[in-house]
């Protein structure tokens, strides 16, 4: 078992997509040998995937696992299985929706305890920055979080407070000292509250009502504020789930100034369109919202010119009742889309139509998130010295999305019934199969990633 060779005509490496042989020693890639290869002799276990592509295991830097405390929403076991089925081998858990929120070392320890023995893929935690957390930032960093997350607007749930500009001014020197990134939910309450007030008598069965309640301006103002703070405090700023393409020109300018900035968007902003969301179809509710076609195309352009670095799922599940599917009310339904098992085919369906390749997918969904999380010397690439995290992917196969393919706790999805392109045939974590042909061989053996 310790020496293995993975062969394919389409191995996706940072150099290109080419026939190659991946030599794996134990848990690690020893060497990637390019060219058509005959299987090596001498004690290697051979896996010949022929024409299927081999991608690096995907990294999802934005997942709400919700355990401990809201395990009935999701959990380590179900989220990491769903991830394995979707081609992910590493998840970074968001500090909220679990109880306690991951804002103290004690809460981080409770999370580690809850995760023990349950994880199918490797994982790590983001810490939370809330209104009174300046005393916890450096201790959380020392205890092993990969960075921090904050909200500039109420996060839709109690137990995690938003931060004001004043809170940030007190907190940012601590964040800067850790050298870790601050991930920001960039919507300001002012424009959202004003818009919502104007819609007091509107019909919230219409998606258009919800869309109007979360205007582009809320994201734009938040991003402007964060860019200005980034110039003053010199911390690593990461904008999570960018929805409005109107922010791209200012983000491009900030980047050209050399600000330590990175930007993420999500599969749903790149695939769903506001014009197509039916009345009452609250499965498509998330915040910031899915916007119109023109905006979607501009986000793709942002990926193309690298104004956007990476694509993360923002997998944010809830019990089905909280989606209020019967009443179809966009005001009261939970905002969040679950997509761990389906993100790769959703992305590939759209990306392949626009002429992108699997190298782009690997950059956006493996290498980019690994860099944000600081694990990019071991995760996110098929290269010597990296963990042997591999996804065997048939990029030509098409399938119809059904609940059986969603392995998270509550198989809800706005993508059900869609025909998508690209099938995950197998996923390997550190050299061993996690998922193959719809099944999960073996035991959960994911580990927490430690810096
Ligand atoms: Zn989120």
Structural overview:
The model has no long low-confidence stretch (mean pLDDT 96). It is built from twelve helices and 17 strands. Strands 1, 2, 3, 4, 5, 15, 16 and 17 form an eight-stranded mixed beta sheet that branches. It has a six-stranded parallel beta sheet with strand order 9-10-11-12-13-14. It has a three-stranded parallel beta sheet with strand order 6-7-8. Strand 6 (58-63), helix 1 (76-85) and strand 7 (88-93) form a beta-alpha-beta unit. The longest helix is centred in the middle third of the chain and has 18 residues, at 216-233. With 451 residues, the protein is an alpha/beta fold. The structure holds zinc ion.
Number of strands: 17
Helix content: 25-40%
- Counting H and I runs of at least 4 residues, what is the number of helices? 12
Low-confidence stretches: none
Q: Please report which band the strand proportion falls in: under 5%, 5-15%, 15-25%, 25-35%, 35-45% or over 45%.
A: 15-25%
Give the overall shape.
globular
Helical/strand content category: alpha/beta
Can you summarize the main beta sheet? 8 strands, mixed
- Tell me, rounded to a whole number, the average pLDDT: 96
Bound molecules: zinc ion
The radius of gyration is 21 Å
Give the termini distance in whole angstroms.
28 Å
Topology pattern, helix = H, strand = E = EEEEEEHEHEEHEHEHHHEHEHHEHHEEE
